[in-house]
Structure formats: C-alpha cells, structure tokens
Amino acid sequence: MFTNSNVLYDRRVNNLVERAGEARIIFPSWKGKEECWLFLAAHDDDIVTGAGLTLLAGLEEKADVHAVITANGNMGYCRPEYRESIASIRREEALKSFRLLGLDQEKVHFLDFDDCSFYLQAGRRLVSDSFASSANTVIAGATGLQNSYTWILRKVRPTRVFFPTPTDIHPDHQLAAREMIISLFHAQGDIWPELGPKLEEIPLLYEYSTYSDFATQPTMRIRATDTLWKKKLAGIKAYKSQEQIEMLIELQKKSGAQEYLREVQFDILEPHKYDRLFG
C-alpha cells in the first residue's frame, strides 16, 4: 500500500474520495516551502493522541510545524503527592513526547493557562492593579485566550491550523476551539496591533478529535506506516504521570495507524446567500 511515501492521504469531495501519497495533491491551496502547520491543543497530550500522525505527516512533508499547548496541566495529577509538581512534570513529559515525534523544542509553545479554567480565561482583558493574572499568561499588557491565540497566530503565521473539535466532551477542548475561531477573525484584522502584524490571509482549518465524534462526518483521513505509528505510540507513552494512558493506547491500537480530520470553512455572513429561500 505504501510505496514512495510514509503517509497516505484520503479526502472526500462531493462524495468522491481522492487518494494520494503526497500532501500537495490532497491539501487544497498547497504553499510548497511556505507550508506552516499550527496544531492547537487544550492540553499537552491532546495533539499526539488526536493528531500525532497528522503532525508527523507535516514533518514528512517538510512543513514548518508548531504545537501550541494552552493549559499548564496543573489539574492533571493522579496522586496527591503530585498536586504541587504536576505542571512541571507534564511540561517535561510534553517536551519529551514532541522530541520523540521529531519536533524541535523551539516549535513547542506553552501558553500556561490554568487547567480546567478556560471559561474564566475566555476573551481578552487588560491587566491592571484591579485585575490580577498569572505573569506567564500576560502578553503586551493583556491576558485571556483570545489575547494569546491572536498573538501566536500573528507570530507563527500558519497556512493551516489543526484544532480540537468543538463537540468534544471536555470543556477546555470546546473553549479552545471557540476561542481559536474568533482569534482568527481578530488576527486578520487591525485590532490589537501590539500583538503583531495582521495575517494576510486566513489559514485553512481542520478539526481533530481526541475523545468525541465530529459534529458531521470527517472529510480527510491520514494513514501512516508502522514506523510513524510507533513514533506516535512512543509519544503517548511519554506521559507517564497520566495513569489512564494505557487505556488510551489500547483504544489507539484498535483504530490502527490512521486519523481523521474535518475541514472547516471560515465563513463571514453574506446575507444575500439566503435570498433564494424567500423567492
């Protein structure tokens, strides 16, 4: 099945399936040497679990690949003695995991928002004496998910963004998806100039799933060789502090070396498209 490539790509278009061993044939608007893929995660282990093969595919295609980790993992302790140290433990595990995948450390971006508190971190607000915030989350005198996401989008300037499906059962995943979408709107506009020059065009968007089904059927499938599959499994196993990790690995083994993506259209309302509904 695999000949000159470690990855096979499938894409459904109008109920027909396109298939190729090269991303440039399957991914629309391929930018060649300018391809830059940004993988957004709520938590450090989300990307390798839900989109590890896709990330590896990006590296295979020589794209400039970045991983953005929103939460610091401070609520991810499984034993009482890890309560105060789990954030630093998980950061080291994340760096090891991405190293096993082959991603350079400087391409892993930690935003350091407290775990399980994304509802409190939504939006953007200026930091002042009347509003306290963790110094790690302050960028250009402001904080909030939209502040950090707009900043990282303008800094990395991706051609494609992969983010959690908003139908996921985990509230942090839902908020990461929602805040990324509105941040894309901000990043291509003139608002908040202190966060960097605006994007020249909106990147193409793809949902990946960690725990739950997509809202509608996925439109792309990524399949990989055993070599890349073993890299993904090794990357998952790096999160030793997460004691349920073996259960995730067993679920992964049942599915095999494949992942699914759902392409997302970034739509701005054009009222005239509804004209035909009223004759």
Would you write up a description of this structure?
It contains 8 helices and 11 strands. The chain is an alpha/beta fold. Helix 3 packs antiparallel against helix 7 and helix 5 crosses helix 6. The chain is globular, with a radius of gyration of 19 Å. The termini are far apart.
How would you summarize the topology of this molecule?
Elements: E1 7-13, E2 16-20, H1 23-26, E3 36-41, H2 46-60, E4 64-71, H3 86-101, E5 108-113, H4 118-121, E6 125-126, E7 142-143, H5 145-156, E8 160-164, H6 171-187, E9 204-208, E10 220-224, H7 226-237, H8 245-255, E11 258-264
Parallel strand pairs: 3-4, 3-8, 4-5, 8-9
Antiparallel strand pairs: 1-2, 1-10, 6-7, 9-11, 10-11
Helix pairs in contact: 2-7, 3-7, 5-6
Distance between the termini: 51 Å
Distinct helical segment count: 8
Mean pLDDT: 92
Q: How do the helices and strands follow one another from N- to C-terminus?
A: EEHEHEHEHEEHEHEEHHE
Low-confidence runs of at least 5 consecutive residues: none
Please provide the count of β strands: 11
Helical percent range? 25-40%
Strand order in the sheet with the most strands: 2-1-10-11-9-8-3-4-5
Q: Look at the helices and sheets and give the structural class.
A: alpha/beta
Biggest sheet overview: 9 strands, mixed
Strand content: 15-25%
Query: Rg, please?
Result: 19 Å
The global form is globular
